[in-house]
Design brief:
With 902 residues, the protein is α/β, with parallel strands linked by helices. It is built from 27 helices and 38 strands. Helix 19 links the parallel strand 25 (568-573) and strand 26. The longest helix is centred in the first third of the chain and has 23 residues, at 175-197. The two termini are 33 Å apart.
């Protein structure tokens, strides 16, 4: 009866305290491991688990490993290379849809979130086998187990029985349960990163006596920056390193070590990590190169390193990184080998590139931007951007999060985290790799439109509220504004200047970036006329003329900022002969103090001497730029983020009229034939399951049957040939439109002869009712292996790829996503009544997007879906899909809940 061992359900997971365990389905050879776990339980724990302390533990262990992975299932949590069992959870089906669950957690692992994680893994496995509800019988005094169930997020019911309680709950992971599990992961990541950013003791393995080497600079930086704890140099060839007694191995260090920084040749790193495991170190930073970045041998070395860390519960930064920094005066940790340390501030920065990280530290210092923490993650073998988002979300010393990304490990989780964190703290990111070089070949219109590797990244950032910048300079420009100014309440900008040309350039850039430069209110203009020379321009931009003294800036800036038509102000200064830059800077600071953070103020000083020091005072900072265009671009990014944050958090709508069971059955039957395109009748049936209106049609085999089908439809029809590999039907003459029924047979015969001659012999024909005129759009899906389903919307019909007018979102869509997706298209005016045409049913198009999104999210086997065209009829008349193609392929097995990616 035993089924195949489900290896894909193995996972390394992080507990509440930041430690890790390996979770996997139990095997028949685990009886001794399980017996050791049962014997390790205290008498109280045995009574709570088995309802008696007098039990045949060996017999119980043998019974518990007899599983079939369907009706009987067990999941084991282990630590160490010998796979010591520290937790076990199991279910046994009572009838078709209900199973009883039981748990045993080692006493030292209780209260660390392991029981909740095992419950989540059990629920996923049970739901996949059609088991809908769990039942657990617990003793009334087993408060800890009851707390596990209540904290899980599952909607539980508790019923009293004589001397026991019965807890029941569904196995389906509700949105609340999933959110709870992700919150636990976030807390676990934050706990793990405490050991990196706030260690009590640090060891540098490979510390060198010689300055100018990686090991020498690392150790020197830790000492000179004044780390508030012991720093141990480890070097088997030296008794003293830079005036500090050294140790031959980490195991020889007399005290406990929280963080070890490894700077030894790559060939020795795994051996050193094993020594750290024996020492009890729980955080490693590996700066050594020579791992996955250098090819197959390096990838194997990295996997070996990761196996050591996972077995010992060690968290790892790197390898191939430069280290990390915490500027908190209570810590003062400079564990990186660069020559500079960033100034203290309230910005957290993660760089996937070490070299870029070094440059960023230098550049941030020159711009006056301070960091709370800096970390270079290198190859991201373990600690990732998702972990750091979890840490910075609750770090009281961090207000702004900066990311330089080269790749994603789990982009869907990143999106969920960023959406939650971004509501409290802005996230600014640069993502390299925008070219089409990584695109995969695609056989549908939708796939061709989404071929650029950067498309899903753009969609991810847009939906998650991440501020994306095009360059590193823009990254720091935006950070300067966010770290020192309030968010603008809108996109209206006031410009105050002493030179006309730069103000015009600033206004042009504002408009190009989606900001507006409105005319000031009459009262504001009157006040400015009373202040400024008659020749000054006061409408907006406000040109105070070249001779404007600092006092004019002091008085004009508050006037413009208080204007009801203005949300933010950019002040531009180009030094004339008389007015000094430092005087103008002081005037700007005084004006900002008067405004008291009511609206953002940005400064532009167009001079070779750089930014006046007055703008960088600790008490009040004003972001300053050398040219007006970067200031306008940064403000535009911040304004868009402010709008996103001000909107209520959207939710995925509950759609009516869905038949998910039948949809799964259709896909399962199709997969039984193998991967490929669905037949037209299967496409129509699958779309109906999601309430999607496909034009009335019939699939036939011969020209004669096509004529019969046309007469049955009782109206003028479209005739389309069906043939393997036939995608672009219009170009090959495989479509005839607006045919009377009596002309259909002849048209089909002619079409078959021509296509056969061109190498596309038809296997049949599709006869379809003619749809009333409307706006032709395309709606489609491509399943990205990393990002999941990408939902596209754009101008449709035969010009879809020529125009390339498409907007993309990641499924699942909210109503707000669908509305924004339609409205950001260049072709959107066609839907609103372009040149006298009646307005189209935009709401119906948005509903199509939502239903296609639901289909793609529910059915991961749908690799591509193409609805082209979707004819959007006049307002109130709906939208009709005229042509649709769906390709299915076996999906990758889902990753277990909380699994770490390798």
């Amino acid at each position: 009866m035993a089924s195949v061992y489900p290896a894909y359900r193995e996972a390394d997971v992080v507990l509440r305290d930041g430690s890790t365990v390996h979770v996997r389905p139990v095997r028949p050879d685990d009886a001794e491991r399980l017996l050791a776990l049962y014997r390790s339980l205290s008498e109280e724990s045995r009574v709570l688990r088995f309802f008696s302390s007098a039990i045949d533990l060996a017999g119980q262990a043998r019974r518990d490993v007899q599983v079939d992975y369907v009706r009987r299932y067990g999941v084991l949590a282990t630590v160490g290379r010998d796979e010591q069992a520290v937790g076990y959870a199991s279910y046994e089906a009572l009838d078709g849809q209900v199973a009883e669950v039981a748990f045993a957690i080692a006493d030292v692992y209780q209260g660390r979130g392991l029981g909740t994680l095992l419950l989540g893994h059990l629920a996923e496995a049970a739901a996949a086998q059609g088991i809908e509800r769990f039942e657990a019988v617990v003793l009334p005094q087993n408060r800890r187990m009851l707390d596990v169930f209540r904290a899980s997020g599952f909607p539980i019911e508790v019923h009293a029985r004589p001397q026991e309680l019965c807890v029941t709950f569904p196995t389906s992971l509700t949105p609340e349960a999933l959110a709870r599990f992700e919150q636990r992961e976030q807390r676990a990541a934050a706990a793990a990163l405490q050991r990196f950013f706030r260690p009590r003791a640090v060891a540098v393995i490979g510390a060198s006596r010689q300055r100018g080497t990686v090991g020498g600079e690392l150790f020197h930086n830790l000492l000179t920056y004044g780390f508030n704890g012991p720093v141990y140099p480890v070097n088997p060839a030296a008794s003293v390193v830079q005036c500090v007694p050294a140790y031959p191995t980490i195991e020889a260090v007399p005290g406990e070590v929280d963080l070890a920084v490894i700077a030894v040749p790559a060939s020795r790193v795994v051996e050193v990590a094993e020594q750290c495991a024996r020492k009890g170190v729980r955080a490693l930073v590996v700066v050594s190169a020579g791992f996955s970045e250098v090819g197959p041998e390096g990838r194997e070395r990295q996997q070996a390193l990761l196996r050591v860390c996972r077995a010992a519960g060690i968290r790892l930064v790197g390898p191939n990184c430069i280290g990390l920094v915490n500027t908190d005066p209570a810590v003062r940790l400079n564990a990186q080998f660069g020559p500079l340390v960033p100034p203290a501030g309230r910005v957290g920065f993660m760089s996937q590139s070490g070299a870029l990280g070094l440059a960023a530290i230098d550049y941030a210092g020159s711009r006056g931007l301070g960091f709370s923490t800096f970390i270079s993650v290198g190859n991201k073998a373990d600690i990732s951007g998702n972990d750091l988002l979890g840490y910075w979300a609750d770090d009281p010393g961090t207000d702004v999060i900066l990311l330089y990304l080269e790749s994603f490990g789990n982009p869907r989780k990143f999106g969920r985290l960023a959406r939650e964190v971004g509501r409290r703290k802005p996230i600014v990111a640069v993502k390299s790799g925008r070219s089409r070089a990584g695109a995969r070949a695609s056989s549908s219109h939708t796939g061709a439109l989404l071929a650029a590797s950067d498309v899903p990244v753009d969609a991810l950032f847009r939906q998650a509220g991440v501020i994306r910048t095009d360059t590193l300079q823009q990254l720091f420009d935006v950070a300067l504004v966010l770290s020192s100014q309030p968010l603008p309440r809108g996109r209206r900008v006031g410009i105050v200047t002493n030179v006309g040309g730069p103000a015009i350039m600033c206004a042009d850039t504002c408009e190009a970036e989606g900001l507006s430069v409105p005319e000031l209110a009459a009262e504001t203009q009157a006040a400015l006329r009373a202040l400024l020379p008659a020749e000054a321009a006061v409408a907006n931009p406000v040109d105070m003329l070249a001779a404007a003294p600092a006092a004019h800036y002091r008085q004009a800036l508050p006037l413009v900022a208080r204007d009801p038509n203005i949300d933010a102000v950019i002040a531009i200064f180009l030094p004339p002969l008389a007015t000094r830059a430092e005087d103008v800077a002081r005037a700007m600071v005084e004006a900002a103090q008067e405004l008291n953070g009511a609206k953002p103020l940005l400064a532009v000083f167009m001079q070779s001497l750089g930014v006046p020091a007055e703008l960088r005072a600790e008490a009040l900072r004003i972001p300053a730029f050398a040219f007006p265009e970067p200031a306008a671009i940064a403000l535009a990014r911040v304004a868009r983020y402010g709008e996103w944050r001000a909107r209520p958090a959207p939710s995925v709508p509950v759609l009516r009229g869905l038949d998910r069971d039948e949809a799964v059955a259709i896909v399962a039957r199709a997969l039984g034939r193998g991967a490929g395109w669905l037949a037209p009748e299967e496409v129509a049936a699958l779309l109906r399951c999601y309430g999607l209106h496909l034009a009335r049609q019939e699939t036939v085999a011969t020209p004669a049957e096509a004529a019969t089908a046309a007469r049955a439809l009782g109206a003028r029809v479209a005739l389309k040939a069906l043939a393997p590999g036939l995608v672009h039907k219009s170009e090959l003459g495989a479509v005839r439109l607006d045919l009377a029924p009596d002309l259909v047979q002849a048209a089909a015969q002619e079409m078959a002869a021509r296509l056969t001659a061109e190498g596309y012999p038809p296997t049949g024909f599709l006869v379809q009712e003619m749809v009333p005129r409307g706006v032709e759009m395309i709606v489609g899906v491509v399943h990205d292996p990393q990002f999941g389903p990408l939902v596209a919307c754009g101008a449709g019909g035969v010009l879809v790829e020529l125009l390339g007018d498409v907007s993309v979102r990641l499924a699942p869509l909210t109503r707000e996503d669908a509305a924004a997706q339609v409205r950001e298209l260049k072709s959107y005016p066609l839907l609103t009544g372009f040149r006298g045409a009646p307005p189209a049913d935009v709401t119906a198009l948005e509903d199509v997007l939502l239903r296609v999104s639901a289909l793609a999210e529910d059915l991961p086997a749908v690799a591509e879906l193409d609805c082209n065209p979707v004819v959007v009829l006049a307002q109130g008349q709906g939208a009709v899909i005229v042509d649709a193609r769906i390709r299915v392929e076996p999906p990758e097995p889902p990753r277990p809940l909380g699994a770490r990616r390798t």
